[in-house]
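SUBJECT: protein chain
CONTENTS: sequence, structure tokens:
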Amino acid sequence: MKRLVILLVLLVLLGGGGFAAWTYGMPIYEKMQAEKAAQKPEPVYVSLTPLVVPVIENNRVTHHLTLAISVEVAGASGDAKLREAMPRVIDAFTTELYGLMSLEFVREGGVELPLVKQRLILVGERELGPEVVTDVLIEAVDRIKGQRDLQS
């Protein structure tokens, strides 16, 4: 009988503790989540200089793509990182676009494929670190025909 009373008292204490944690802990948890969401930096958009990418088919430059790209970075610190590493990022973007344009399904599908944006975001993460580049916006694409032979 004594053990049953002790067990009952322990269950009442656990139930009261659980109720108190639920009642008083939830507002604190919600407040912490709101503060965490408020700490997320405002996105900053940085326009890059237009990127010119040659498209080569059968050892010939068939056309040049000129892309106007804006990069969305996380806050002022991301903006500073991007501006500090701008030449390296532009080189990495141009190299990635050059490689992507050598793939036939990308040439035929167009430059605004989700694959192109995804690859540029990955390149930005590789160059600047995680959670700096949040999105890439391809603003304009211009195709200029070219007929230069690469073998001569």
Remarks:
- Strands lie at 43-47, 51-57, 60-74, 133-149.
